[in-house]
Design goal:
This protein is of the alpha+beta class and about 290 residues long. The chain folds into 2 domains: about 100 residues, Gcn5-related N-acetyltransferase (GNAT) (Aminopeptidase, 3-Layer(aba) Sandwich), CATH 3.40.630; about 150 residues, Gcn5-related N-acetyltransferase (GNAT) (Aminopeptidase, 3-Layer(aba) Sandwich), CATH 3.40.630.30. Helix content is about 30%, strand content about 35%. Strands 1, 2, 3, 4, 5, 6, 7, 10, 11, 12, 13, 14, 15 and 16 form a 14-stranded mixed β-sheet that branches. Helix 1 runs antiparallel to helix 2 and helix 8 crosses helix 9. The radius of gyration is 20 Å and the shape is elongated.
Length: about 290
């Protein structure tokens, strides 16, 4: 039967959920985001079908003007090898080009070998590697605030600190937003604008350390630790404060790692009880395709 591409619609929800249930041991994020995907006017969700049956889908949206983002490339395991993922990827690349994209970005897990093979065949190149960490913070998490040295940091100062950080250099100048990675230098203030928590410690008038987190409002999705760098002892104190602030929450972090070089936050999180998926090695890769 012939493979055909078409827009995915709200009435496809049941089939999308059925496919997603076979991804990540049934813990795929797509079902929770599906309605928002369909409602967004700036992006598109494209599916592949055979004989009228939806077998694969993916989404294209925008990180910022000129910078497209691809995500959620999913294929029903029963239909793998039919070329659905490749056909959708090719379509979305051309669609992004027509819409004015200069660069297309995406991220993927190290174990997603089929997707990696497809995107690399289209010329996507790996630009950064990250270690995914997670931990559920105990309800009893406490912070000793007898020394009132932790401050809220403005977006402007956050952007300035991040711009000079070892963390951002190791991340290929990409600022993490969960599984999305934003080109920081295109608009530094926009890159840090959505952070709900920006806390730091200042010594002798100079910001020595900074930790940034974001808690999605009104959802059960994890708290995301977006950024952390600076003096290791100060970072440990900031982390203790953040744990008390988000007691009982599940926290996830993406920490860049290039070769043997590690940023201080990785060691601090590991010593604080955070766990990794791949034995403390990079397992999330950021790719990009330049269309210029």
């Amino acid at each position: 039967m012939t493979l055909a591409l078409r827009p995915v619609r709200e009435e496809d929800r049941a089939r999308v959920v059925e496919i997603s249930a076979q991804i990540w041991d049934g813990e795929d994020y797509v079902p929770d985001q599906f309605s928002a995907w369909i409602a967004e006017s700036e992006g598109e969700v494209i599916g592949a079908e055979i004989g009228g049956r939806l077998i694969a889908f993916a989404r294209r949206t925008w990180l910022c003007p000129g910078q497209a983002w691809l995500e959620g490339i999913r294929t029903d395991p029963a239909y793998r090898g039919r070329g659905a993922g490749k056909a959708i990827t090719e379509y979305l690349i051309e669609s992004a080009r027509r819409a004015g994209a200069l660069t297309i970005h995406l991220s993927t897990h190290v174990g997603n070998e089929a997707s990696i093979h497809i995107i690399e065949s289209f010329g996507f190149r790996r630009v950064a590697s990250f270690v995914h960490l997670e931990r559920t913070i105990p309800e009893t998490a406490h912070f000793d605030d007898s020394a009132d040295d932790i401050i809220e940091v403005s977006a402007q100062e956050t952007a300035g600190f991040a711009a000079r950080s070892r963390f951002l250099a190791s991340a290929g100048r990409l600022f993490p937003r969960g599984w999305r990675f934003v080109p920081f230098d295109l608009d530094p203030l926009e890159a840090v604008a959505r952070l709900g928590t920006r806390i730091g410690i200042r010594r002798a008038g100079t910001l020595t350390s900074l930790l940034c987190l974001r808690q999605p409002v009104g959802t059960t999705t994890p708290t995301v630790m977006n950024f952390g760098d600076g003096d290791p002892q100060d970072l440990e104190r900031l982390l203790e404060y953040a744990h008390a602030r988000y007691a009982g929450r599940h926290v996830e972090a993406m920490v860049p790692q290039t070769g043997e070089e590690t940023v201080p936050l990785l060691r601090i999180l590991l010593e604080s009880g955070y766990e990794t998926w791949e034995n403390e090695t990079p397992d999330v890769f950021s790719y990009q395709l330049d269309l210029r």
